Amino acid sequence: MTTSIFIAGFGGQGILFSGKVLAEMGLGMGKYVSWLPSYGPEMRGGTANCNVIISDEPVGSPMVINPDILICMNKPSFTKFQNNSKKNSYIFVDSSMIDDEIRKDDVKLIKVPATRLHKAANLVLIGKIIKETGMATFEQLEYGLKKAIPARKVERFNDNLEAIKIGWNYK
């Protein structure tokens, strides 16, 4: 089984870190993983996206063109990438930032007001995604967070884990 994930938003929203958490989670599950970040020259406020593939087999290409899971953290990303999703895929959006409706009827749109729920909105969405899709356990996701968080920011672990719990429990 292979799951392709595309995360998109503005720089500074934790797009690349979200991808790293998912990649570390996959590695902890003994899967083959690809993590390919991309960001504009503006750093904060510019465009950012991340391709993540978690698979039972070696990953041939790190590029995600038609994702199984699309995560949009802002309106321009949603407008640009929503039509790329595969049939029967998931699109998760931060409804605090995106009020548009989807133009496709063959995907499952899940809206979470992530920015209103926690300052680490990216991790709120990650918690919701893992719970909704069942692709991993909470413990496996927690492991991914532990591995992804840099040593210089280890004091943020509990706050980040709280954001994941909020997303995990969001109805």
The helical percent reads 25-40%
Q: Total number of β-strand segments?
A: 6
Task: Report the portion of residues in β strands.
Answer: 15-25%
CATH superfamily, by name, is Pyruvate-ferredoxin oxidoreductase, PFOR, domain III
Structural class: alpha/beta
Which CATH C-level class is it?
A: Alpha Beta
- The CATH architecture comes to 3-Layer(aba) Sandwich
Task: Write up this protein.
With 171 residues, the protein is of the alpha/beta class. The protein has one domain (2-169): Pyruvate-ferredoxin Oxidoreductase, domain 3 (3-Layer(aba) Sandwich), CATH 3.40.920. The protein is 36% helix and 23% strand. A 6-stranded mixed beta sheet has the order 2-3-1-4-5-6, sandwiched between helices. Helix 1 crosses helix 5 and helix 5 runs antiparallel to helix 6. The longest helix is centred in the first third of the chain and has 14 residues, at 15-28. The chain is globular and about 40 Å long. The two termini are 27 Å apart. The model has no long low-confidence stretch (mean pLDDT 94).
Summarize the structure.
The protein has 171 residues and is α/β, with parallel strands linked by helices.
Give the SSE map.
Blueprint: E1 2-10, H1 15-28, E2 32-39, E3 47-55, E4 69-72, H2 75-81, E5 90-94, E6 108-112, H3 114-117, H4 121-133, H5 138-148, H6 157-169
Parallel strand pairs: 1-4, 4-5, 5-6
Antiparallel strand pairs: 1-3, 2-3
Jot down its keywords:
171 residues, six-stranded mixed beta sheet, 6 helices, Pyruvate-ferredoxin Oxidoreductase, domain 3, 6 strands, single chain, alpha/beta
